[in-house]
Every structure is written in C-alpha cells, then in structure tokens.
Amino acid sequence: xxxxxxxxxxxxxxxxxxxxxxxxxxxxxxxxxxxxxxxxxxxxxxxxxxxxxxxxxxxxxxxxxxxxxxxxxxxxxxxxxxxxxxxxxxxxxxxxxxxxxxxxxxxxxxxxxx
Length: 114
What we know:
With about 110 residues, the chain is of the alpha/beta class. It has one domain: 2-Layer Sandwich (Transcription Regulator spoIIAA). It is built from 3 helices and 4 strands; from the N terminus they run E-E-H-E-H-E-H. A hairpin with a 4-residue loop joins strand 1 (about 10-15) and strand 2. The longest helix is centred in the last third of the chain and has 14 residues, at about 85-100. The termini are far apart.
C-alpha cells in the first residue's frame, strides 16, 4: 500500500539545463512537505543553478508554508518562474499579494462644527 501523505516530497524533479532547475510539483504543499523542496533548492543553489521553473498544475493543496520556499529563491538573486498555477496555488498567491498591498489612504474626515 502506498501512502502519499503530506509529508512526502511534492513532485518529480527534472533538470533541463545546467543553470535552470525545472520542478513539477504535485499533491499537497504545506510546512512539512515543503521541507524536501527547500533542501532541493538549497542544493541546486549550491551547485550553481540560477533559474527555477516551478510547474504547479498538479498541486491540490497549498498553504502559507509554501511562501517562504517561493520567496527564498529570488531573495538570493535567482530567477523564479511559476507556470501552470493550480487553483490552490493561485489562491495562495492572490492572498499573499493582497497582504502586501499598502493600506489605502482614507479620505480626510471633515470635523462638524456647531
């Protein structure tokens, strides 16, 4: 019996060039299942990969545990491209973008005088 719980590494790994890593993620990505992906990306960076393409078409669940993984690569001056966003990934990206929006300035309230 095969158990594909959330703690398994999420997906297959394909290296398509010497400097670009292509990862096809599948299944669930949370804080625990993102650990193998974090380790993979750190190893790829150590051997000189400067580009990363993440295909998330087959991701069925994704929570905020994925965000630090996505943020790490560009913070270290490497190119990141997300392709084929699944609905859960798109929902997470939309929520993260909304949190980063600066608060809108409120119109000044006029004081009532009596």
